[in-house]
Amino acid sequence: MGKFLFRLKMFMQNRYGADPLYYALMVLYLILLVLHIAFIRITVVGRILNLLSWAVLIFAFYRVFSRNFEARRRENDAFMRLWGRVSSGNIGHFTNAGNPFGGSGFGAVQSVPKDKKLVKCPKCKATLRVPRQKGKHNVRCPRCNNLFSIRIWFGSKNK
To answer: Which of 24, 58, 138, 153 has the greatest CB tally within 10 Å of its CB?
Structure first.
C-alpha cells in the first residue's frame, strides 16, 4: 500500500488538484446524475442529462490533473467571484483560507517543518512561517509590512 501511495503522490506532483470549483462540479455532477435517474424513462431528457453529467465529470477531472496552474487559478477565481455574488459574501468552506486536504493553497500540499509554525497576518491574512520557539515574538509581515506580536506556547526554548 505504501508503494501505491508513493506512486500516486509522485503522479500528482505538479498537478493542480482539487479546489472549490472542483467540489462544485462534483455536486453538479451528482445533481445531474440524480436527475438522469429520475428522467430515465423520458429518453431524450435522460440522454441529455447523461451527456451533461459526463461532460461535467470529465471537465472536473481534467482540472484536477491539469498542469496549467494559471489557467485553473483564473477559472477558480472567476467561480469564486460568481459564488460570492450568489451567496452574498458568505461563501462558507469555499474560501482560499484553507484546503480540506492540508496546505495553504488548493491543489498544493504544503509540508511544514516541525521547527516552524504557520501564523496569519491580522491585516492582510497572509500565511507566514515563523520559527517555533517558546515565548512572545514580534513578527513583520513581508506582504503588508504590518508589525504584530504572537505568543508560542509549545516549542523549543529561545536560544
So the answer is: 24
